[in-house]
Amino acid sequence: MIEPRLPKYQWGRRVKAAVDLFNDGGYPDVEPEALLVAAGGEGEIVQTGAHTDSNTPLYLVEFTNGRVVGCLEEEIEPIESP
Predict the structure, then answer these.
(1) Does 25 map to a domain?
(2) 3-class secondary-structure state, position 7
(3) CATH number at residue 44
(4) Alpha-carbon distance 71 to 48, whole Å?
(5) Distance in angstroms (rounded) separating the CA atoms of residues 61 and 78
(6) pLDDT band at 82 (very low <50, low <70, confident <90, very high)
């Protein structure tokens, strides 16, 4: 069994998309592969969890465009506080 990796980021953390985020089917009312959030889009982590098959951290991020998107750690980066 693979041990779960602990999340780097916690709930409430301000982050930005490190890459363009596309619809993988999670938004049935949006075209498949449509752009959901462009790289650099800012948001806040509203929930953390784990991908059950790989035991990797998964984050629900509410972006300022109103979309809530599931992201892997590699897809987001923290916004440093001034």
Answers:
(1) yes
(2) coil
(3) 2.30.30
(4) 10
(5) 12
(6) low
61: nearest Cα among 6, 5, 19: 19
Asked if 1 contacts 64 with a C-beta cutoff of 8 angstroms, the reply is no
The total number of structural domains that make up the chain: 1
In a domain, 2, yes or no: no
Residue 74 clears pLDDT 80, i.e. is over it: yes
Q: In this predicted model, what pLDDT tens digit does every residue of 5-61 receive, in sequence order?
A: 889 999 999 999 999 999 998 888 999 999 999 999 999 999 999 887 888 999 999
Beta bridge partners of 43: 15, 63
pLDDT class of 80 with cuts at 50, 70, 90 = confident
Residue 5 forms part of a structural domain: no
Structural domain containing residue 68 = 14-78
